[in-house]
Structures are given as structure tokens and as C-alpha cells.
Amino acid sequence: MAEQIFFYFFAALSIVSAFLAVTRKNPVVSVVWLISCMFSLAVIYVILSAFFLAAVQVIVYAGAILMLFVFVIMMLNLKTGMVGQLRNLGLKFVGLIAALLILRQFYSAIKGAGAMTGLPPRAAAGFGEAAAVGKLLYSQYIYPLELMAVLLLVAIVGALVLAGKEQS
Amino acid sequence: MIALQSLLTLSAVLFVIGVCGFITRRNVLIMFMSVELMLNAANLAMLAFARHNASMDPQVVAMFVMALAAAEVAVGLAIIVAVFRRRGTVNIDDLRNLKW
Amino acid sequence: MTGFPSISWNLLLPQIVLLSTALFLLLLAVIYRGGGRSRGATVAGAVFSLLGLGVAAFMALAQYDTVADTFGAMLRLDPFSTFFTLLIIGGAALCVLLSVREAGGLKAMAGEYYALLIFSVLGMVVMVTAADLLVIFIGLETMSLAVYILVGIGGERENGAEGSLKYFLIGAFASAFLIYGIALLLGTTGTTRLDGIASGLNLAEGGSLQLVAVALVLIGFLFKIAAVPFHMWAPDAYEGAPTPITAFMAVAVKASAFAVLLRVLNVSLLPLADYWLPVMWTLAVLTMTVGNLAAIFQGNIKRMLAYSSIAHAGYLLVALASIDPAAAGVGNDPAMASVLFYLTVYTLMNVGAFGVLIYLGGGGRQMETLEQIKGTGFRYPLLGVAMTVFMFSLAGIPPTGGFLGKFYVFSAAVNRGLISLAIIGVLNSAASAYYYIRVTVQMYMRQSDEQLPGLPFSLPLAAAVLLALYGVFQLGIAPSDLLTAADRAVLFLR
To answer: Which helix (H) or strand (E) is B95 found in, with range?
Structure first.
């Protein structure tokens, strides 16, 4: 029961934060709401017994990715005049209609999936802990893991090439 | 007991909020944050399935998605900084040298 | 439940060579940056890139007939993946030749330029050899991140960063769709392996969720091949990028995305053929028509070639719409073989056209718009002839390879009874001749307003253009070798 109360509370919180994050005018405020959304999701991950992923979610998303956003916003020193105003109302209206249609499609698809209902009452011991993730990551998923290392290297080189000071 | 459907619905709602944000906002930073939201929605769906199917694979894939998000953010913010230095704006409507 | 997967290292050799080359180039960049010798960095970068690509191609060629899995079947080597590996490496090598002058202009960044180019080739090779959606996704992202950066590299070009930003935003948006689709597929079928997905598809139970998942995955890929209505990033990115990178995007990125699309459609989604075949039909018509119509109104040749590349994606979608689900894995399917043939020809003629454009820009005068190339045909006769051949090939006029490519695609459509689709394709092709031949007309029939400067000779550029020229004629006159290889490659697609 407590689990359900937690779930519905944080589900609602994540939706509200997500909505506020994409609608705020000031990007800094958006980032704060996005952090709140990521944090609620981390709680839901715990409810789903994905303990390790919940920790990573907080460390990587809230700790690293969104902090990077904040740094960049501060570095660019955005004045409010440069931040997007409401324009192209027609386009946005079309976008919203399309998005609602997508949502409806999702909903009917999810509802139609009758065979999948409740989650199993409890996960096996060790499910979702760091050891379980690590074992898979370094055995079955070793190839994608190595590729991921290449991807991160590309990202580092890229960030330096694009944003680094140009040397004469 | 939490139904898989409610988790998937939550994930779908977050995904669609992300899509809406991307389509309607013109500030590239917020467009980019919307993409992050969409990636999180995908992760939520994956973890819900992991729990439901009692399988660890989706959790590992979610891990990859987080690493990817970090890489994407590094490159994306570098591009945004580069554009801002040259043009002094982060509003996509003002970036019209190339017809959008 | 899990053991460490058995690894056959020799199957990985091309990828290992590419990775080592890219890392070595990064090291080289650091060394040269210290000395400030930009010319040395450019030449050494190009030489070592070509060397690395050559060795990788040699390794791939040596195992052309190998059919094997490794890493727990995450990687699958067969003639299909090797065909595309070779095509991508070849296209990339031509783009390296085109890059020499552009990279020289980048000064300190030249080393990173080549390293990123090789990294993105590595991503593509991973994509086309992958037999697992997760690996495909990571390969796709490696390729994309490297290309986003290459589009925006170098501070001097005015629109590079803007093109890069738009490409990046749309690309990230598309990969979010792709990963959401992968999440749903993984949840409902329990695997990311391509063959596992095929057996896990169950339309009776939880089926509509799987349909949504498949749609999301396909949307992700369609963004990458710039099919209408997911094409809006392409013209901006193409125009903003350095011209060799534009060529690279038009040929290698497109080829690898089509390879993945072919594999996913044939291996995983064959049970759903009734759903996606009509979708491909519609997208083919839209993509051809929108691409060609928009190309007619472009004054900038790079932008025109961007729309033309969208139109060519449309012709390739015609072939995808003509796939015969009954023939998959059993006999050879002319529709699929025609995609491989078309992509090869397309690589050659596009590299050639961009090569001529880059060569023309060598005299210190910008040569990007129809206005600017007036009269160049007489001033530089060889380049004029080469450009004319490439334009004729793009328009699909015999005896060039472009004609045969279109011929095979449209005859595959006719074979499957898609007469109306073939007719729309031919009409589009005829309309496209207008804007291709207009380039030739501008080069020969008009006088330039000012004195045209002499062009410095550039061996790598000349080599790339001549190779492309040779290939376009060779494939137009004696296509049988390539056709046999393509036929054989698609046999292994399962």
C-alpha cells in the first residue's frame, strides 16, 4: 500500500515537473523542474527494484547532465530577451494536436495489451543491484560497452573541437 | 500492487510532454531538455518491463541510454556554445541564415 | 545464466584497424599542434586515414565469404555486411581525398577532422555488421555524434555551427524515438536481437504496443535517411557543412542507414510486411516528389544536391516498397539487390559532383551557386565534362551508372506489380533532369561576368574525380560484376 502511495505521488510529481520544465520561460527554472522530474523518476526506479539505476540516475542526470546545462546557461549569460517567446502559434497548435494523437495511440496500445497486468509481487534477491548489472555489462554486453567507450571518446573530442578556445 | 499499464502510461505521458516541448519551444536549450525528458521516458518504460519480465537486460540497456545521454549532452551543449559565440542567440527562430 | 561470450577476434579486424587509425590520428593531431605545422598535419592526416581505410578494406575483403556470428550474435559478418563495409570505406576514402584542401583551411583542427571522420566510419561499420538493435543504436550514435561535430567544425565558415545545431537537435529528437521504440520492443519481445524480435512479434497478444514500437523505430531510421516528412534537417546541414563532409553525409551516412533499414525490415519485421510495405510506398512517392520539386527552386548547388539526395532516397524507398516478403532468405530479390547497386552508383556520382564543386572553388573564388558557375565549362573544360557526366548520371541518362541504377529499381517495382509507383518514379526522374541539366547549361551556355581565375592543380581532388568518373562509366557499361555481388549479398540477409 505504501508502495502505491509513493508511486502515485511521485508519478504525479514527475508529470507536473516535466510539464513545468518544458513550459517555463527561464531556462534556469526549467532545469530546476527537470531535476525534480529526474529525482521523482529515481524514486520510481527504487520502487521498481532498480536500485543501482536509481543511484546512477541521480548521479548522472541530476548530478552531471543537468549541472552541465546550468553551467552553460550561466556561461552564456542569457538575457530574458533572447529566450524564446511565444511565436508561431499555428505551428504549435498543430504540434499539440499531433502530440495528443500520439498519446491516444499510446494509450489504446497500452490498454489493448491485456495480457500484461500487475508486476510480480517481489523481485528475486539481488535483482537490480550493482552486482547484477555489472555482471551482465561485463559479459554479455561487453561489445556494446566497448563501443560506448568509443562513443564517449568521440563526445570528448567533439566538445573540445567545437567549444574549446581556438588556438592560433 | 502497481500495474504495468500505469507505469507505461506514465512513461508515455512523459514522452509526449517531451515531444510537445520539442515542437513548441524555440529556445534550443529547452528543446534539448525535452529530448532528455524523452530519453528518461524510455528508461522508465525499460525498467518497468525489467521488473515485469524479471529480466535484467532492460536495466543494462537503460544504463547504455544514460551513458549516451551524457555523451549527447557534451556534444550538444558544445554546439550550442559555438552557435551562441558566433550569433549571440539561442533562439531557433533567429537562426535563419539557412532557411530552416 | 550468463557466460562471457566467445569472441572471434578476426571478425573484428576491420573495426580494430579503424579504431587504431582514429586513435593514432588523434595522437598525430596533438603532435602537430605542438609544432604549429598545419600543412604537415593535413597531409599526414590524409595519408594515414587513407592507409587505415585501405588496411580495413583489405581485412574486410579477405573475409568476404565469411558468414559468422560473434559476441553472442551481437555482431554478424556476412557478404551483406561486408558489401556495405567496403562501400562505406570506399566512399569515406573518396571523401578523404576531397578533404585535403578543406582540412588545410582548418589549420589546428585538421588532425581532429580526420580522426572524427574515421570514428564515424567506425560507427557505420558497427551499424552494418550489427545483429542487435542496441549495437545498431550505439553505432548510429557514434556515427551521428562525429558527423554533427564535423558539420560545425572550423570557425571560419559562416553557417557551419547553425547547420550543426539544427542537425544535432533533429538527430537527438530522432534517436529519442528510436530508443523509445527499442524500449517497447525489448519489453514486449524480451530481446534486442534482430532475429529474436522477429520470433517475439505476436500481433494477437500485446500486438498494438509492438506496432507502436515498430513505428517509433522506423521513424528513427527514416530521420537518418532524410525521408519526407522527416527531411527538414538535411538541406540546412548539407549547406552549412564543409563540402567534403556534405559529400560524406550524402553517401556514407545514407548508405549505412539504408543497410540497417534493409536488415531490420528483412530480419526483424518481415512478419509485419503487410504493414510497412504500404508505408514505404507512400513515403517513396512523397520523398521523390518533395525532393525533386524543392531542388528545382534552389540557387545554391550544395542545397540543390541536398534536395536531390532526398529525391534519391525516394527512389531507394521505391525499391524497399517492392521487396517481396516471400523471397526473403530463399531466393534473390531483385528489389533488394537494386538498393545495393543504386547506393554504389550514387556514392560515385555524388562524390564526383561534390569533387568538381570543390575543385572549382580552389581559385579563391566561391563557386557554390548557379550564378557563380556561369561559363566555367569553357574555362575549365575537363571539369566541365566531368560535371556534365555526373549530372547526366544523377538524372539517370544512359550510358551512365545512374541510368542502370534507376532502371533496376523501377523494374523491380514493375515486377512486383507496382506499376503506378514505377510511373511516378519515372516522371520524377524526368522532372529531375531539368535541374541537373541546368547546371550544365549554366556552365556552358552562359558567359561569366568576370574573369575566371586559374585553378591550382590538386592531385587528390583530381584522383577522386577521375575515380568517380571511371566508376560511373564502368557501372553504366559493365554492371554485371557488381550486380552479381549485390545478388549474393542479399541472399544472406536473414
So the answer is: none
